């Protein structure tokens, strides 16, 4: 385009020089010829400028991942959607509007209430793109910043509507189901605005500090209750152990008593075992001990045994007379 202007100026300069030369040698007809030459030069310059402007503005390029719609000054929006590459339009009459149709993220954080009136802070990330076949409608009713006009409001409304169906505890245990319902609601609402949602995800879920403290206190109480339950079970087991041990000792004493009544030799056997243990202890001691043999149960064949046998015999004979 600059070369065309340069050539036009060069032609105009040459024509002016010719007109000046002819004016100097032609007398009265010189001024008229000079004016005509100047007019021709102006018209040539204007034609070159118009040609350059038309050539520059008659084409436009649509980059990859983009689409274009065209506004016509006489008929309004054209129904066609133009793809990637080089496209043509009429300068001044038509104006292209280029849309980015690649997937883009939108993040929203909202404060809403659950079914049990607990305040929940919810953050949602949405991947969206415009419907390529309806770009003309999107430009006519929403403009280029369609996502800023539509998505924040419907995301906020859908998130609050879904969260209100669940209790605070269910929002944690059924997080996948909550995310799925929010995605379904958002997709349905965005379809009315010719916006395609590719993915909806809950990126953050938090409760109020009061509720968090209450949940922590509940967990501590449950742990204390479980610990107390195990303590009670341990006490019950210890009680059963003591009862069983007492029963065993009672049965053992009863069996020993029966054995002594039936056979006095059983008691002698026990005395022999006791005397053996005492003798081992005394023998292992480094000190000299002088004690009564009867006290240490070492007099196994002394008068104590005779008296014991006589006592047992007298008891047995006395029971016969009863």
Structural overview:
By secondary structure, the protein is of the alpha+beta class. It has helices at 2-26, 29-57, 135-141, 146-163, 168-173, 175-191, 209-262, 265-284, 303-321; strands at 59-62, 66-72, 76-77, 85-88, 94-100, 104-113, 119-130, 195-207. Helix 1 packs antiparallel against helix 2 and helix 4 crosses helix 6 (175-191). The N and C termini lie far apart (149 Å). 10% of the residues are buried. Mean pLDDT is 79; it is low at 23-28 and 318-322.
Summarize, please.
With 322 residues, this protein is an alpha+beta fold.
Q: What are the main properties of this structure?
A:
322 residues; alpha+beta; three-stranded antiparallel β-sheet; 9 helices; 8 strands; 61% helix; 18% strand; rod-shaped; disordered C terminus
């Amino acid at each position: 385009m600059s070369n065309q202007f340069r050539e036009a100026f060069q032609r105009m300069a040459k024509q002016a020089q010719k007109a000046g030369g002819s004016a100097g040698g032609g007398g009265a007809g010189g001024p008229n010829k000079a004016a005509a030459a100047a007019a021709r030069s102006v018209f040539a310059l204007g034609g070159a400028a118009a040609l350059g402007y038309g050539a520059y503005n008659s084409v436009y390029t649509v980059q990859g991942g983009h689409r274009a719609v065209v506004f016509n000054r006489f008929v309004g929006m054209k129904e066609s959607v133009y793809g990637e590459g080089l496209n043509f339009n009429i300068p001044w009459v038509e104006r292209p509007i280029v849309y980015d149709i690649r997937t883009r993220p939108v993040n929203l954080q909202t404060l809403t209430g659950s079914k049990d009136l607990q305040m929940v802070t919810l953050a949602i990330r949405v991947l969206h793109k415009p419907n390529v076949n309806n770009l003309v409608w999107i430009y006519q009713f929403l403009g280029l910043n369609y996502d800023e006009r539509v998505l924040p409001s419907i995301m906020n409304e859908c998130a609050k509507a879904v969260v209100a169906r669940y209790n605070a505890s269910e929002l944690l245990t059924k997080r996948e189901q909550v995310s799925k319902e929010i995605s379904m609601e958002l997709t349905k609402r965005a379809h009315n605005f010719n916006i395609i949602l590719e993915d909806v995800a809950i990126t953050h879920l938090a409760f109020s500090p009061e509720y968090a403290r209450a949940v922590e206190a509940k967990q501590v109480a449950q742990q204390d209750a479980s610990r107390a339950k195990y303590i009670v079970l341990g006490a019950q087991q210890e009680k059963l152990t003591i009862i069983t041990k007492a029963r065993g000792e009672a049965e053992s004493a009863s069996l020993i008593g029966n054995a002594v009544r039936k056979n006095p030799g059983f008691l002698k056997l026990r005395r022999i075992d006791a005397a053996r243990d005492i003798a081992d202890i005394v023998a292992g001691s480094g000190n000299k001990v002088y004690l009564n043999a009867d006290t240490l149960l070492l007099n196994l064949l002394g008068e104590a045994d005779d008296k014991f046998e006589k006592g047992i015999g007298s008891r047995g004979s006395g029971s016969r007379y009863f």
